[in-house]
Amino acid sequence: MVRGALRPKSNFLGRVELFSQGEFQLARREGRELDTATEVSIISHNEALRSDFRGFAGAGLFSEWLLAVVSFGNEPSGPVYRLTEQVFALLDSGAPPWPVICGGVVRLLHLSGHGFSTDTCVACGAEIKGSTSWSHSSGGVVCGKCGENGFPVKSGVISFLSRAGNSSLESLARVRLWPGGYIQCHLLLKEYAQVHLERRLLLKSEKVMKEILDAGH
Fold first, then answer.
1. Class of the 47-214 domain?
2. Which string of b and e fits 65-103 if b means at least 16 CB within 10 Å?
């Protein structure tokens, strides 16, 4: 909790903004669920995220994924923090939002213990060749012999998901899929996460991102 953050003479005014990066000093009182911020210093404002509607919507969507997937407690998570920092930095630099978001979500799922297989069949371990099926409940791709309970997925989506686990987010930002390809990729990730988290994900920014894409911006 940041008390007085919106007061005109507050020391926090302008330092606590959406998608900004800062160092906070917190006071913790026994019996209270919320810590109170006493000091803050800005590391990065990420101003472009609040001035470009594509970057803003993308940062909002990834933030919703964070809130949905990561279990927040008192223990810090360096890998999740660095991943968030990378995603915001790329969006702040003007990188295309969809490949950055989809690539970031793939890594987020792996970091949270909900990873999946894209190169070998999750049922028998065979290397995937030719047509590909996917099973949310099994945890990834399944071969032709084991794919009775799966459903077909375009090879381009599987290739992107595989690359997302091994390549930098900077290189993923340069990957282009067919029109609507990233929508399909994001839907696959969302449905997969819902199965393994056992709850529905209400991602409000997803609608905004789709509307931006439909408008041709």
1. mainly alpha
2. bbebbeeeeeeeeeebeebbebbbbbbbeebbbbbbbbb
